[in-house]
Amino acid sequence: MSSSEELKLLVIFSLLAAANLMVLFLILFFKKSNNQSNKVLGLLVFIPSIVLVMNPLFYLQYFSEYLVFIFIGLSSTFLFGPLLLLYIHLVQDNKYQFKTKDLFHFFPVFFVIFYGIYISLQPNEINYKNYLQIASGEDLMINIINIAQLIHFAIYITWSIKKVNLIKTKTYLSIVDKTNYKWLKFFVTRLLYLNILILLIYVVQMSFFPSYVIYSDLLATPLASSCFYPIMVYKSFANKMAYDTDVFNKKEIKSKEVQLSESTFIVKEEEQDEELNSDKILSFLQENKTYLNKDYTIHQLGVDLNESSRTVSKVINSELNKSFIQLINEFRVEEAIILLKSEKDKLTIDAIAEKAGFKSRSSFYRVFKNIKQTSPSQYIQ
């Protein structure tokens, strides 16, 4: 196989890997019912796709007259660290507001782009000479930028690992907090392994096979990226599905209701109506706080009150003019308000929702807004 044919195959392989990552980016960034963390993860996938496009175009000498594109590609890698920190922040359902000091994270990006513009404004003869130096690996500034990239990844991945480990120091961890911790730890550690692997590939190649750098750029890096990022995207969706459930699963409740009804003793309905009233129901819920059980049903309340669920439902509907679910959610919201006021600095929104009896943050927000006409965060301000 001739060297030109080999180059074409390597270029095609790198571009296919870039297309693979681009598809993942589009899915993450533009999917329906999206959230900010998915969009940021999409950008994290988009950055290596830029590199996988730039490398083959560089070897095909498309940038010999437009050096600025080389530096735009190099600058994009310096976005990875800030976006990684932002992703970790958003996965924990924290709100983000841009501050002036955050511009510090983007200083390397601006510097590399401006330097690339400056180089590109030189005469064509000097530009071509600079291109030959870059292609031969003798350009001082490019080598400095490459070293800065290694330092950048080392700093931000270490920083990210520390931020993830801080999750464990919270006073109370909800199921969502624990799930997020496991996912984020898995993600950042695998990201660390990936960068160590790519670094080792380049070290070995430069030490023993200096003339084969093309294989590192157009084969090893695309192959590693194509294996790593699709797995991470799949894991991120699996992590979300693990806890993003609504407050009541109808099939699950129906199954539990059947089991409970079979074990519940039968009492004459006429006698129950005489004994049970709304005061008794409210008093029981206030004293025992059984509504904190996220799977609590009207059948369980009937068992606790020594009444049939039909009778309990009838009393709640007729005397309180509401359904069982509305009643339980009102108690849960009041419990959440107490926690928001007393432990907002210690607990996350997910932890408060779970301790108040809600199955998910989304259901907590929806119910809270329906009852209080405002969101939990706005309520405590």
Automatic annotation (TrEMBL):
Gene3D superfamilies: Homeodomain-like. The keyword Membrane applies. Keywords: DNA-binding, Membrane, Transcription, Transcription regulation, Transmembrane, Transmembrane helix. Residues 279-381 form the HTH araC/xylS-type domain. GO terms for molecular function: DNA-binding transcription factor activity; sequence-specific DNA binding. The chain crosses the membrane at residues 12-29, 41-60, 66-91, 103-121, 141-162, 183-203, 209-231. It comes from the Bacteria. The keyword Signal does not apply. SUPFAM superfamilies: Homeodomain-like. Pfam families: HTH_18 (PF12833). PANTHER family: ARAC-FAMILY TRANSCRIPTIONAL REGULATOR. This is Transcriptional regulator, AraC family. It comes from Wenyingzhuangia marina.
